[in-house]
Design a protein that fits this description.
Length: about 230
């Protein structure tokens, strides 16, 4: 399908918004996705855009916190659905138990500036909700024949992130954003050049105590947090 001046103009406006320092992280991220969707639909390359300024696409790194198996599971689930990658590195993190900054293994995100900034906000919100949902599940079932006395936090987190991933993937498919949400080539090239392959240890199965309730809670969170995204043409 051939493009038109109106489509080119719309893409240029969206790209300017994504680069505007006055835009919020959510606005910039949404504008980027919408511009790329139009560019893919009408086969428009960036070289055809007439922008006043096309700044370098800066690779950013953010550390959401200390490395734990549950944090790694959440980070990898979110990163690849918000145009970033997650990796493990040595660094510093705030330890709420000691109220100080400690050295140790941390999880870091790598992505283009707008994408990584937005992902950190999403990670913070998701981690708070996961912590709350797990505490509620334990409280609700604490007298249920000892079942949730055996509740494995890893099983619940595994189910929660699986539900989160399923809901986000379903939304992306409905809105035709599946490929656009993948990390850009610059991010994968940086990872190949600077990181050694590493995977987190598999921490749970899909039939352990708490998995099913975790999956339901994770899907509910994603539906409530992102289900009303209305990125329309």
């Amino acid at each position: 399908m051939s493009d038109t001046p109106d489509i080119l103009s719309r893409v240029e406006k969206l790209m300017r918004l994504s680069q505007n320092t006055g835009a919020t992280a959510h606005e910039a991220h949404t504008a980027t996705l919408m511009a790329q969707k139009l560019m893919a639909q009408y086969h428009i390359s960036e070289s055809r855009l007439d922008l006043d300024k096309q700044p370098d696409r800066k690779i950013e790194h953010f550390a959401p916190g200390e490395y734990t198996e549950i944090e790694w599971l959440l980070a990898t689930t979110l990163a690849k659905r918000f145009r970033c990658r997650a990796y493990r590195a040595r660094g510093q993190f705030y330890n709420p138990k000691t109220n100080r900054t400690d050295d140790g293994d941390v999880i870091k995100y790598v992505g283009l500036d707008n994408d990584a900034t937005y992902l950190i906000a999403v990670h913070t919100l998701a981690r708070q909700q996961l912590t709350y949902d797990l505490a509620e599940a334990r409280r609700k079932h604490k007298t249920d024949g000892g079942y949730y006395a055996r509740l494995n936090a890893h099983n619940f987190a595994s189910g929660w992130t699986a539900g989160l991933a399923k809901e986000l993937d379903d939304q992306s498919a409905r809105e035709s954003f599946t490929l656009i949400c993948q990390p850009p080539p610059e991010v994968d090239e940086w990872c190949r050049a600077n990181l050694y392959p590493w995977r987190g240890r598999y921490i749970s199965s899909n039939n352990g105590p708490g998995y099913a309730s975790g999956m339901h809670a994770g899907r509910a969170f994603a539906s409530n947090a992102f289900g009303r995204r209305n990125i329309s043409q």
